[in-house]
Amino acid sequence: MEAYESGDFMALIVQKYGGTSVANTDRIKNVAARVAKYRAQGDQIVVVVSAMSGVTDGLIKLAKEIAPLPSEREMDMLLATGEQQTIALTAIALHALNIPAVSLTGAQAGIVTDGVHTKAKIHNITPKQVHERLDQGNVVIVAGFQGETKDGQITTLGRGGSDLTAIALAAALKADLCQIYTDVDGVYTADPRIVPSAKKLAEISYDEMLELASLGAKVMQSRSVEFAKKFGVVFEVRSSLNDNPGTIVKEETKSMEDVVIRGVSLDKNQAKVTLVAVPDKPGVAARIFKAVGDANVNVDMIVQNISHGSGTPATDLSFTVDKPDLLKARKVIEGLRAEIGYREVIANEGIGKLSIVGVGMKSHSGVAGKLFDVLATAGVNIDMISTSEIKISVVIDLAKGEPAMKAVHAAFIG
Ligand code: ASP
Ligand code: MG
User: Fold this and answer.
1) In Å, how far from its chain's centre is CA 175?
2) Number of structural domains, the chain?
3) pLDDT tier at 9, thresholds 50, 70, 90
4) For a tag site, which of 45, 93, 235, 303 has the least CB within 10 Å?
5) pLDDT at residue number 2
6) Average pLDDT, whole number, for the chain?
7) What is the pTM of this model?
């Protein structure tokens, strides 16, 4: 504190507030009050805000009422307005507390992207105006989720993209601290709505966070965590509704390996496609997955059985896709029927993917055996298995998903 007051140490803090944290004017006033508290300690603050919760969805709905496939350039023009409302309102809320504050669009903050509308990637950030406004003593409020191309076209960074704005700005500004404020207290060992004994983690590595996010524990946009890992941005996920410490996300340290399992997640958004009796010969899998990939369907797990039969042997081939892509995947496979010659295709939406994640798996053995044992005791049949260095996932019956998750959490975490 002394140092702050004497002015010889001033921290630069990037704070990002998500949609629920700015959901109405009272919440926006709360944000201003929190910013004011940090500022009173002498820190420089850059605030990144999302659109008020529901606003982006509402704008998308309006466009789709007019046309099912609206122009992506115009969607960016439209969606960028959501964040522009909240930056101005947040600045106004700070002014009401007599704090000098100025709002900047993504473009004004120097966020330059490629030209892929609705899912643009950040090329570079030249935060000249941010520095100038900070140096003049302002809190600077930047619109999340948006940027502009080098030719001045407005772009957006994909859903949830305000997280990326905050992390990328923290990297570009070499911020001392990056705080991601949301409506949960941090990252938990499991979804507390399903597993009441789930605990908040004090820290987690980027890789564990990525596995937990892409496995259904959506706390942050995955791309923003990848970006943070690449540029070494340490950040904290915490709640805007209280003052509890959150979860620190950072590079893996040796002591993190002492804990075998950091978290358990259940992804209910997967579906399984099975091709029955596919000819087992070179090129067949390549043909199938090329066609599926060309249709922009992401495949997660793939399992091929041992072949059976004489002559050209046949095998069953299963893979999982995101549920909304199931129809598309099925259509693609049906289109290959004459060419490949399988017996039938079965689609199953009643699956769940249960995963355990932890960097400690690298140095502890017997984890898979213990997982399978717990599932067996709980009477849960395993349909597919996949593993990485820090993760084991199993596909199980969706109806058994939640009880299985509880049993696995109890066995590994408590
Ligand atoms: N408002 C955008 C969305 O809803 C970006 C964000 O919230 O991060 O996806
Ligand atoms: Mg969000």
Assistant:
1) 22
2) 3
3) low
4) 303
5) 35
6) 93
7) 0.88
